[in-house]
Specification:
32% helix, alpha+beta, 6-stranded mixed sheet, 4 helices
């Protein structure tokens, strides 16, 4: 089962995020899906599609590289690097034209061969620094 979950995670990154094929969400995301970050919670496939649509508009050249992926029968932990050029509003921040390179981690839980729950941490401080929103 861990190999099947690994394939799902690769599809999620390569097809949904990098290739912008949101229809794949219907195959790999459970109908009762929940997505959580420290500041946000989304429910269902449609909310996830809207999140990725917003990111794809804000960062049209959005690309995620898998840095590490660990899978078990019911869980996957993915470390990634996200890159892109800020061309439209993102999290209320008007377009800056700046390129970003940020790291994140996502823990995914599986049910019946689909992702049912995820917790994500994205290095937003680094993002805000690269967009000249904050300086340290």
């Amino acid at each position: 089962m861990s190999k099947a979950n690994e394939r799902i995670m690769w599809r999620f990154v390569e097809e949904v995020i990098n290739d912008k094929c949101l229809a794949v969400i219907d195959d790999i995301i459970h109908p009762d899906y929940v997505y959580r970050t420290p500041s946000q919670e989304l429910h269902g496939r449609q909310d996830l599609k809207e999140l990725f649509t917003a990111y794809q508009l804000a960062l049209p050249d959005l690309n995620v590289k898998i840095d590490d992926l660990i899978c078990t029968d019911h869980k996957a932990v993915l470390l990634f690097t996200l890159t892109g050029t800020h061309k439209d509003e993102l999290m209320g921040i008007p377009a800056t034209g700046k390129q970003v390179n940020i790291n994140g981690i996502i823990c995914s839980h599986f049910d019946n061969g689909q992702i049912i729950e995820e917790w994500e941490l994205l290095d937003q401080l680094s993002l805000f620094q690269q967009l000249d929103i904050v300086s340290i």
